[in-house]
Amino acid sequence: MNKQISNRRNYSSNFRLLIVIGLLCGGIGIMAFTMNKDNSLKVVKSNSLSPIKKDSVTSVKAFQQVYTVLMSARCMNCHPSGNVPLQGDDSHLHTMLPQRGIDGKGVYAMKCANCHQPTNTAGLHTPPGNPNWHLPPANMRMVFQGRTPRQLAKQLIDPKQNGHKDLKKLIAHADDGLVLAGWNPGEGRTLPPMSHAAFKKAWLTWLNTGAFAPAK
Amino acid sequence: MIALNINKKIYHIDADPETPLLWVLRDHVGLVGTKFGCGVAQCGACVVHLNGEAVRSCVTKLSRAVGKKVVTIEGLSEKNDHPLQKAWLELDVSQCGYCQAGQIMSAAVLLKENKNPTDQDINDAMAGNICRCGTYLRIREAIHLASELQRKGGGNS
Q1: Of B54, B114, B124, the CB nearest to A114
Q2: Residue B157 lies in a domain
Q3: With an 8 Å Cβ cutoff, are B40 and A123 in contact?
Q4: What is the CA radius of gyration of chain A?
Q5: Which of A92, B36, B47, B102 is the most buried (most CB within 10 A)?
Q6: Which residues 38-67 on chain B approach chain A with CB closer than 8 angstroms?
Q7: Which residue, among B19, B124, B147, would best test binding to A if mutated, counting the most A CBs under 10 Å from its CB?
Q8: B88 and B70 assigned to the same domain
Q9: With contacts defined as CB-CB under 8 Å, which chain A residues touch B61?
Q10: Do B91 and B143 reside in the same domain of the chain?
């Protein structure tokens, strides 16, 4: 009889232990930023974020808007498929063929900041400016050029391809100084296809509804 | 008055902080070795060093140079004996000469960062310096010669 009670106690305590481990693992899972098999984001716990409410239809629709901005010249020109930045509304190769370099800031006498000043230079088609002008670095090229909506969506939420950004950093990136520079491009350059506020709203909607990748 | 360190001397400049550095160098200080070419950072004739980087002085505002070290072609070496200057003379690189100060200042940054540049390194470094006389082949040869002089310890780099 005593042995039976003792076995029941052991069973009960083991069962409780399993529950505690399960809860801990669940908690870690909730706090983590990882991708599901369906290429959407898991729920992320963060004070600054709306909790993710998965909605693939809303998410994909929001990304279609995001995509039009990211593939516009103001964003894509600094996310080229090669090592030379693009230039102009037609995204031609940058004249003088400046090279990306290891850190994305150019090489030798051809570093971005040699021409690109902290602010826009006055006049038509003069070098636009930003204190931190650069391409993505050589070891994390973050290419936009040539990417389909699906490819780009998957790339954007993969920390191995997006500059090690978790969801919080991705959201913050909407207000990054160089991103904002897209809406202050200097004279003679077309703005992205929507306002920064509209872009940010679509960006957040995409992320907060699960960051689903479009089918194509 | 704005204090500016140019070629290791302090100059007090009476100019608007928005004034392009090139105007300050040529019109206020009288260092006319640096040339005006296009005025929009497209040709490289106005290259000077700002804290060791080959900036285009036509679009660089005076305010950006405050607190930094400006070096012009006149200050590249004390006795005009930088390996590049020696090589330029040796190979008689210049034709009209207008772009050459900018070419040499850009090449100096290349040789500072790469002691033995390949043709591709030279292309990558010098692609922003235009020469309407087409002296590119002699420029390339002179950079190779200068790198050799530099490695042998010749000249004051």
Answers
A1: B54
A2: no
A3: yes
A4: 23
A5: B47
A6: 40-42, 47, 53-56, 59-61, 64
A7: B124
A8: no
A9: 117
A10: yes
The string of pLDDT tens digits covering residues A121-167 is 999 989 999 999 999 999 999 999 999 999 999 999 999 999 999 99
From residue A215, give the alpha-carbon distance in Å to each of A16, A38, A147, A160, B125: 43, 11, 13, 22, 43
Asked if A162 contacts A170 with a C-beta cutoff of 8 angstroms, the reply is yes
Provide the whole-model pTM. 0.85
Q: Is the ipTM of this complex over 0.85?
A: yes
As given in the structure block, the two tokens for residue A69 are 């901005």
Domain limits for position B63: 2-75
What residues does each domain of chain A span? Answer: 1-31, 38-208
10 Å CB burial of residue A11 (0-12, 13-18, 19+) is exposed
Does residue B110 fall inside a structural domain?
yes
The contact set of A with B (CB < 8 A) is 95-99, 107-111, 113-115, 117-118, 121, 123, 125-127
CATH code of the domain covering residue B40? 3.10.20.30
* Mutation site, B47, B48, B49, B56, interface A, largest A CB count within 10 A: B56
- Note whether B55 contacts A114, CB cutoff 8 Å: yes
Q: In this structure, are B52 and B110 located in the same domain? A: no
pLDDT tens for residues B40-84?
999 999 999 999 999 999 999 999 999 999 999 999 999 999 999
Smallest Cβ–Cβ distance between B47 and the set A99, A109, A126 belongs to: A109
Q: Which of B75, B71, B29, B64 is nearest to B49 (CA)?
A: B71
Half-sphere exposure of A182 (CA within 13 A, CB side): 27
Question: What distance in Å separates residue A24's CA from the closest CA in chain B?
Answer: 52
Which of B38, B48, B55, B118 would you mutate first to test chain A, the one with the most A CBs within 10 A?
B55
Query: Helices (H), strands (E): how many in chain A?
Result: 8, 4
Can you count the helices (H) and strands (E) in chain B?
A: 6, 5
**Residue B65 and residue B46 in one domain:** yes
